[in-house]
Amino acid sequence: MCLKDMHLPPSALSSSLRVGNVEIRNRVALAPMSGVTDLPFRMLAWRFGAGFVVTEMVASRELVGNAAESWARLKNSGIDPHIVQLAGREAHWMAEAAKIVEANGADIVDINMGCPAKKVTGGYSGSALMRDPDHALSLIEATVKAVRVPVTLKMRLGWDENSINAPLIARRAEEAGVQAITIHGRTRMQFYNGNADWDAIRAVRDVISIPLIANGDVDTIADAMEILRRSGADAVMLGRSCQGRPWHAGALAGAADEPAATEIAAIFVEHYAMMLDFYGPEIGLRHARKHVGWYLERFAPDLLTERKAEMLTSKDVKLVSDRVATAIARSGLEPARGEMAA
């Protein structure tokens, strides 16, 4: 599909957007992903031009209780706006946590009602909240009342195909003071299976006047333009397509070029060092492994299995950094520029 055949111009991605009193520099965002969008990843994505980035979800009650992991997820380093996503199941803890993140520099507080993970929904948080809209609204209202900064909401289409209630919750959320809504075009029961339903997101657009952000299966410019057209959304959010590609959201927005293989190798080396510095060597190695795997899968797919296994398991920091970078540079692979310009 060529851009000239679409109803929306490419500038639909590069133009700014306002969420309450906060200006967003473009319309391609990096999704909050637990275990992925830590501070090093967000810093890179922001540097490469993502419109906005969101922290990993911060458990509200644990933050109020001074849990070290929650405070680590809250950290920021020059990213503007600083958007913190909170998760929880009780209005009191959501409100108290919102006050804390505002006091620690958050420009926007995002409410997680979309996570499908069993350990989250099993605690009646994340997308499980969509099963009880009245209770979900109590959390939303408490969070909005607790802070002066804009509050946004991220959710799915519904719990399952028999309970598509995102339009209902979105309308009530706007009435409660939410300033923007992100919809992942799947139900919770789909997890990440099948295809995201971009057309179903339009039902939310039809009932709200605040900015709508569409999420799910967006990889190329063609995807981004098509999800905007079909959903009526104002912006797009990328998730899994950015794994191993922290520059990808910025590239789709036209804020950065897709890097060549040698540049990707250098980005990996920097990213790897940032993770080790942020977490410390021992914990950093564990966190880095999945990222090593994503870089290799994308940019050195023909690497011998035993070589890949060594890079994923070695505790020799220099060995891993050097060999992964060499594998990427030697592969000569780089993101398909045809896809980017399609």
TrEMBL record:
User: Which keywords does UniProt give here?
Assistant: Flavoprotein, FMN, NADP, Nucleotide-binding, Oxidoreductase, RNA-binding, tRNA processing, tRNA-binding
Where does the chain bind FMN?
Answer: Q85, K154, H184, G239, R240
Tell me which residues make up the DUS-like FMN-binding domain.
30-318
User: EC number(s)?
Assistant: 1.3.1.-
State its cofactor: FMN
Taken from the record, one Pfam family name reads Dus
Active site annotation, chain numbering: C115 (proton donor)
* GO MF: flavin adenine dinucleotide binding; tRNA binding; tRNA dihydrouridine synthase activity
- Quote the catalytic activity from the record: a 5,6-dihydrouridine in tRNA + NAD(+) = a uridine in tRNA + NADH + H(+); a 5,6-dihydrouridine in tRNA + NADP(+) = a uridine in tRNA + NADPH + H(+)
The family assignment reads:
Belongs to the dus family.
| Function of the protein | Catalyzes the synthesis of 5,6-dihydrouridine (D), a modified base found in the D-loop of most tRNAs, via the reduction of the C5-C6 double bond in target uridines.
**Per its record, how is this protein called by name?**
tRNA-dihydrouridine synthase
Question: Source species, please?
Answer: Sinorhizobium fredii (strain NBRC 101917 / NGR234)
